Amino acid sequence: MARRSRSKDTIAIYKELEKVVSKQPDGMCVYNGGADDRTVAEKLQVSPNSVARIRQDNFGKLRQQHEPDHRLDDLTRRVDEMGGALAQLLSDNADLHRVNRNLITSYDELKNKHDRLCDTLQINKVADVRHLKVVTQTHLQAHTNAQGRA
Questions:
Q1: What share of the chain is helix, strand, coil (3-state, %, to 5)?
Q2: Buried-most residue among 21, 111, 118, 123 (CB within 10 A)?
Q3: How far apart are CA 119 and CA 128, in angstroms?
Q4: For residue 46, what pLDDT is reported?
Q5: What is the C-alpha to C-alpha distance for residues 73 and 93, in angstroms, rounded to an integer?
Q6: Under 8 Å CB-to-CB from 61, ≥6 apart: which residues?
Q7: Residues in CB range of 135: below 8 A, 6 or more apart
Q8: Contact 55/17 with Cβ under 8 angstroms?
Q9: What is the pLDDT of residue 1?
Q10: Residues of the chain whose pLDDT is less than 70?
Q11: What is the pTM of this model?
């Protein structure tokens, strides 16, 4: 196979680079679609140094393209998952507060019914039930505080 002339190689390299290189506003350039000096050189059967020289002379220095940082994607996914877990925890917390309020209300209602029953039994002298009266939370707290000081 006869070797092409140097000017034909230069033109072929330039035309191929026009397809795969984007010139940037800052005077640098980037390859598109995964191409690089080596792949262009292999396609045209020329040296990678020739491709690099023509690219730099006509399109500018090559900006190093970094591999995409998948850590950011991973962190974004984890933050989304944590946000979902946090929303669930907040929902569960609200449910627990509702259940706690209901328990306190039910306890207060039951305590009041018990106290009224004890009062009725005492008034009717059915039995001495003063000792069965439920200690209110205020009395219980005062009793606990008194014990703590002792």
A1: 70, 5, 25
A2: 21
A3: 10
A4: 94
A5: 30
A6: 27, 28, 29
A7: 143
A8: yes
A9: 36
A10: 1-5, 65-70, 126-150
A11: 0.42
